[in-house]
Amino acid sequence: MEMMQLVKLWALTLCLVVVLPLAQATDVSYCDKKTEYGVKVSGVEITPYPVARGQPATFSIAATTGEPITGGKLVIEVSYFGWHIHSETHDLCTETSCPVSEGDFVVSHSQVLPGFTPPGSYSLKMKMYNTSNKELTCIGFDFSIGFAASVSES
Ligand SMILES: *[C@@H]1O[C@H](CO)[C@@H](O)[C@H](O)[C@H]1NC(C)=O
């Protein structure tokens, strides 16, 4: 890993650990357990936790790639108690610094969940593609949305 990347990764980790004590590490699973994905994901941290409605939530995904990634996209799908409610596509390079060299990298995705989002149990599925539209990884994890923001909102 290059020095700058190491510093960035370390700074991000420090930031998550020290500044954001409400961050939560979450269990991640691959969409297809039999597939050997080119990008391995070791964990996800969600800040704040539980996610508050109408406020940005940050999903920091720690990953490792076996080959350099020049660019690509992220497809994110959110489900509520198993119901697909939201999907969006992002340029991979807006969520991590491109090009990604072989080794560890972090994808940081921030998103504001709509104010009407009911509290409860959600799951998020994230697929990563490279510029040749080849699926590099597909992961899923659960998170919950609290009642917190509804107080200040209304
Ligand atoms: C995308 O990933 C596939 C599989 O790892 C690889 O063969 C291909 O060269 C990659 N494309 C680019 C543009 O990196």
UniProtKB/TrEMBL annotation:
The keyword Signal applies. The keyword Transport applies. Residues 28-143 form the MD-2-related lipid-recognition domain. It holds the Pfam family E1_DerP2_DerF2. GO terms for biological process: intracellular sterol transport. One of its GO terms (molecular function) is sterol binding. Residues 1-25 form the signal peptide. Keywords: Lipid transport, Signal, Transport. PANTHER family: NIEMANN PICK TYPE C2 PROTEIN NPC2-RELATED (PTHR11306), PHOSPHATIDYLGLYCEROL_PHOSPHATIDYLINOSITOL TRANSFER PROTEIN (PTHR11306:SF0). Catalyzes the intermembrane transfer of phosphatidylglycerol and phosphatidylinositol. Monomer. Belongs to the NPC2 family. This is Phosphatidylglycerol/phosphatidylinositol transfer protein DDB_G0282179. It comes from Punica granatum.
